[in-house]
Design a protein that fits this description.
With 339 residues, the chain is α+β, with helices and mostly antiparallel strands. Helices cover 26% and strands 37% of the residues. The protein has helices at residues 2-20, 94-125, 131-155, 209-212, 326-333, and strands spanning 22-24, 35-37, 39-41, 44-45, 49-54, 61-64, 71-74, 81-82, 87-92, 158-160, 166-170, 175-178, 191-196, 202-208, 215-220, 223-235, 238-243, 257-264, 268-272, 277-279, 282-289, 292-297, 299-304, 307-311, 320-322. Strand 16 (223-235) and strand 17 form a beta hairpin.
Amino acid sequence: MKLFTSLLLFTGLLGTIARADTIPLGALGDLAVDFAKVVSTDTYPGRPLSARASFRQGEAVNLVTPYAVRQIRFQHPPGALVARGDIIARLAGPEIHHFMTEFTILQSRLASASRRYERNRELYERQAIDESTWLDISDSYYALRLEHEHMRHFYELLEPAGEDDALWLKSPASGLLQYRQPEPGLAAGQQLALIIPQDALRLRVSLPIDMGQQTQSLRIPGCTLAVESLSGIADDYFIEAWSAPLTSACQLLPGQRVMARPLLGVTGYLVPRSALIEWQGKSVVLMKAGTALETVLVQILGSVNSSYFVTSARDLSGREVLSTSASAVQGMLNGLGGE
């Protein structure tokens, strides 16, 4: 009798579906019927990707030594927050005295070249000297001026450390101090340290090319950051993206790696996993339409916790879909029977 009743119900369902893609609620008999409201959303969380807290080229202050340094003793650990003018290192060695002497001599040479430049400029304007002589004088003056400016910027960061062969080095900017302890020292022109402004730290992530333009933001534990820039050059199958600056809520250290979930700008719906069924080889949900259920085709893009993220040609915003007994209805539709 139970099998006969199920066959009758199944036959009725097939007739109803064939006619109008709807199922009267009364045709479900004693099946448990519960509904869930569809949630519309304009973002879709993609699969997590490896990201790194870093900074874009040119955004950090690069501190380069103009002379060789034999010994460096940093006063703060890497990653420490320093203010502009804070002492960050003690520089020591006989090169210190050489640099101070060289800078003093350079100042004297520049002063002399400046007087010569001004003197001969008046002569050149009166055409009392030829152009080639004036060019030699002006080239010499500007070369010395550039050299002096280069050394002066570093000189202004130095303070006496109480010894002839030692100086204190001050920070040129506020930010996070980054360095690698040199061994046994540094040659002229090498990097002493980086000062990373706090608002320069961002998430850097490689996105699949087909996902790049759709990714609006990156979500990590504690914060969500908008994607601020996207490279126009591919690296194989990926493109580089940078987020907006990190906030204090992100709690990431420079260089730290973290799994970031890209949030794509895709309009769709969240429906319970239990609401999805397969009918005639396609994914559908059973939407409540008055006193009937209507089959609505959907496309599954992915899963979010206990829900599926789907798109549909129909507007499902705020509509109710069958969330219990959907598999039983599917079984009857596919000829598998049901209780």
